UniProtKB/TrEMBL annotation:
InterPro entries: BglG_antiterminators (IPR050661), CAT_RNA-bd_dom (IPR004341), CAT_RNA-bd_dom_sf (IPR036650), PRD (IPR011608), PRD_sf (IPR036634). GO terms for biological process: regulation of DNA-templated transcription. It comes from the Bacteria. GO terms for molecular function: RNA binding. Residues 65-170, 173-275 form the PRD domain. Pfam families: CAT_RBD, PRD. It comes from Thermoanaerobacterium thermosaccharolyticum (strain ATCC 7956 / DSM 571 / NCIMB 9385 / NCA 3814 / NCTC 13789 / WDCM 00135 / 2032). NCBIfam families: LicT. This is Transcriptional antiterminator, BglG. Gene3D superfamilies: CAT RNA-binding domain, PRD domain. Keywords: Repeat. The keyword Repeat applies.
């Protein structure tokens, strides 16, 4: 493995025998070294292989400004998240989360608060990601001796959610907006029916999952597979209250939904209100 660039004593860019570019970290790995020299591979502690070129370039820029201990902590958080969620995360998470945590700690050191107005919704709709966020706060406290507030667990969770469903850079604000809309849609359903939804029911869980993917489709302008027109008319007539509720949601979203989206939203509303 050959050194291409040295950021500091603990972080370098290298190229391996397969001609892949890697960011490599380890205590003293770049100390008294120069580009073109071989790496002492026994010093390697963490290796970043970012397949997206744009993410790789931004990550390298980040390393020039952010202390390596922050990068190392975020690496551990991301690896932990991958294992717990059992899913792939977009490469940009290494950029966005590292940058976020670095700035969050700077604000913490300056005595500034960064409250998360969606903390309740995140706990409710994304419990796995929020628990990982809480674990991340433990990592930070163990390594840096800084106890960040639980609101930061919510912010970290948003980055993890974003890394699962978005392929573009810096879209955490979209996830926050979607989370608020899900909350508002649930309120529309409860207000229409005058009920409290059973958050432990399978129907509720399926409805939340449907809404999460529903917003992804809207953002990507994707369409569900076309449904039989007869089925749509039958559901519209049979579940009139659920259909009327769906129309309120369509009005709230200020967008014209396809018959397919209308059908599935109506069916989910019907199920979640009958459990």
């Amino acid at each position: 493995m050959i050194i291409e660039k040295i950021f500091n004593s603990n972080a370098i860019v290298a190229r391996d025998s397969d001609d892949r570019e890697l960011v490599v970290m380890g205590r003293g790995i770049g100390f008294k070294k120069s580009a073109g020299e071989m790496i002492d591979e026994t010093l390697i502690e963490k290796t970043f292989i970012l397949k997206q070129n744009d993410a790789s370039e931004k990550f390298k820029l980040l390393l020039e400004d952010i202390p390596t201990e922050y990068v190392s902590i975020c690496y551990d958080i991301i690896e932990y998240a991958k294992n717990m969620l059992n899913t792939k995360l977009n490469d940009y998470i290494y950029v966005t989360l590292t940058d976020h945590i670095y700035n969050a700690i700077k604000m913490f050191d300056e005595g500034l608060e960064n409250p998360n107005p969606l903390i309740w919704e995140i706990k409710k709709f994304y419990p796995k990601e929020f628990q990982i966020g809480l674990k991340a706060l433990e990592f930070i406290e163990d390594e840096l001796n800084k106890k960040l507030p639980d609101d930061e667990a919510g912010n970290i969770a948003l980055h993890l959610i974003n890394a699962q469903i978005n392929s573009s850079f810096n879209k955490v604000e979209n996830v926050a907006e979607q989370t608020k809309k899900i909350h508002d849609i649930l309120n529309i359903v409860m207000y229409t029916y005058g009920i409290t939804l059973d958050e432990k029911s399978i129907s509720y869980e399926r409805f939340i999952t449907h809404l999460r993917f529903f917003f992804q489709r809207l953002n990507k302008k994707e369409q569900l597979k076309e449904v039989d027109d007869y089925l749509f008319k039958k559901v519209k007539t049979k579940y009139k209250k659920a259909y009327d509720c769906m129309l309120k949601i369509e009005k709230y979203l200020e967008t014209e939904l396809s018959n397919e989206e209308k059908l599935y939203l109506t069916l989910h509303i019907q199920r979640v209100t009958q459990t």
